[in-house]
Amino acid sequence: MGDLVLLEDEVNPVMDKLKSAGFVTAIHNHLAEETPHVMDMHYMGHGRAAQLATSLHAALAASKTPLEKPVAAEEPPSPQAWVDALEKTLGRKGAFKGGVLAYGIARADKVTMDSMTIAPAAGVAEAINFQAADAGNVATTGDFVLTAAEVNPVLAELRSHNIAVTALHSHMLTEDPRLFFMHFWAVGTPEAVGAGIEAALKRVTPK
User: Fold this and answer.
1) Where are the beta strands (DSSP E) in the chain?
2) pLDDT tens digits for range 97-149
3) What CATH number corresponds to the domain at position 57?
């Protein structure tokens, strides 16, 4: 399971490749006002590894997604000051790679779909990402994975800290508990942005 990031004119050609495998679970935006505008197509499949990989490769080939091995990103010599500031504000270490400080925070409750437990790293953990912006600021985006009762408390914390909520929707079809994915965007100082994210995380029950 996962999501494919597609240009608008790629959505239906890719969907035509995936629909025969019964893969598609959601199609929607994650951000607002980005250039070029992109859509995220979520999918979930179950079967033989080679068959799943073949289906996904055929779908990606219908888009402009580069399929060759990517060039390794040049790593900064060491974590920068904004990384330390965010980790201090959030009170936890993240994974810093390719200029992005990433967090994947597992929920306390087990998530299942079709009687199978979904690992947090497969897309049901709180996904928080930061990267450097101009003037000493940082940008943040990602998604909070929430139960219905958590949606409005998290939304209220994000908005009270001037963090934009860019989308709220489902990514799966028959998961238990029912989950909603809240996407967000903000640019500001590491301390201000980090404080908003930390306040929102306190409204979720992490592992």
Assistant:
1) 2-7, 24-28, 38-43, 95-97, 100-105, 112-113, 116-117, 126-132, 138-146, 164-169, 175-176, 180-188
2) 889 999 999 999 999 998 899 999 999 999 999 999 999 999 999 999 999 99
3) 3.30.70
- HEC profile of 34-54: CCCCEEEEEECCCCCHHHHHH
Alpha-carbon gap, residue 83 to 104, rounded angstroms: 16
Would residue 74 count as lying in a domain?
A: no
Map residue 22 onto helix, strand or coil. Answer: coil
User: Exposed, middle or buried, 49 (CB in 10 Å: 0-12/13-18/19+)?
Assistant: exposed
Mind listing the pLDDT tens digit for each residue in 2-16?
A: 999 999 999 999 999
In a domain, 133, yes or no: yes
Residues 104 and 188 in one domain: yes
Location of structure tokens 């980005």? 34
Joined together, the tokens standing for residue 101 give 């400080």
